[in-house]
Amino acid sequence: MTSFTYDGLPGRVVFGAGVARTRLRGEIDHLRAERILLIGSGREGVLGAKLCAPFADRVIATFTDVRPHVPIEVAERARAAAAHADLVVSVGGGSTTGTAKAVALTTGLPILAVPTTYAGSEVTPVWGMTERGRKTTGTDRRVLPGTVIYDPELTLSLPVDLSVASGSNAMAHCVEAFWAPRRSPVSNAVAEAGIRHLFTSLPAVHAAPRNLAARGDLLLGAYLAGSAFAVAGSGLHHKICHVLGGRFDLPHARTHAVVLPYVLAYNLPNAAHAADRIGTALSRPDPVAALRELSEKLDMPTGLGELGLTRAHVDAVVDDILAIAPADNPTPVTSAGLRALLRAAWSGSDPSRHIT
Ligand code: NAD
Prior knowledge:
Layout (H helix, E strand, L loop, with lengths): L11 E4 L3 H12 L5 E4 L2 H11 L6 E5 L8 H10 L5 E6 L1 H14 L3 E5 L10 E6 L2 E6 L7 E4 L9 H17 L8 H23 L4 H21 L3 H13 L3 H16 L4 H11 L4 H11 L13 H6 L1 H7 L10 H13 L3 H4 L2
Parallel strand pairs: 1-8, 2-3, 2-4, 4-5, 5-8
Antiparallel strand pairs: 6-7
Helix pairs in contact: 3-4, 5-6, 5-7, 5-9, 6-7, 6-10, 8-9, 9-11, 9-14, 13-14
The chain binds nicotinamide-adenine-dinucleotide.
């Protein structure tokens, strides 16, 4: 008999082509917001200003200094810009949403998020910030955006390499949800649906980046992925990527894409249920091979060596990962097992062959 605890997360989602243009004002009215801090940089900043133009009198400040991984000094400047605001509107990818979350964390201000990538951060209560090169993350419901406007039209401009990397990061959220600490039948169902959407839409967007229907399907997969990650939490895969990314300043999404098939291969022998569900969602009996082929189809790097790491680099993080590895990972995480996993991920060798 199944037993579980599931903490559902609140939030309103408005999804559809063109909704950023047609629904943003109505959603802001619904929130009765009168003093908006708009966060967005570069092209997304310009987009945000355009979207807010019909109610520009309500935008009391604009913050454009978004940086990857939210350095603490950026968070502090954004908080200062929010001094008289009653709503934060973020328009951009995970770094922009992350900046809005840093503001909400200390001010308690509500967030309306308009994502322009497939990161999924907009539906999670997870925040992250960096101080002197060290990334800290935490979970706090105050940072969960109350409203999310998903408009696939806004993702048409995302370059294809960033699109497939960001979408592969979403795939990692879904796959890992099957053994993450707060997994449940609910998160499993959401993750499985996410995998189906991502597996078909990623190659479609790669082949035709201006295909709005494929962009919509990828964005829906990313939303499901973020939702599964938000409730199930992070497991071995995310811990490995967190340590590697923090230590060597690696590109976040590409690191996830490389590492995922190796963690899957490591865990599958002891995670029959996950193997079944992931295999079903991928319509393939061998999910490791399916993910590997997907990466190749998307021209993603297959080894950490391609991201600039040496074998000594990956050997050097074994102990750090071991220290935070989840105790209930399906396959017990040993020093030798982790080293083998990382070396294989570094060389890009066939994931299903090396790990026993
Ligand atoms: P990003 O936000 O850093 O954006 C990557 C680049 O894409 C930037 O140069 C940005 O300007 C550009 N860009 C964004 N949207 C665009 C568009 N539509 N057209 C053209 N260019 C566009 O990258 P990301 O992958 O979205 O986010 C990564 C960050 O999000 C990481 O810091 C990661 O830790 C965080 N993240 C957090 C969570 C969470 O739950 N807290 C979940 C996933 C990712």
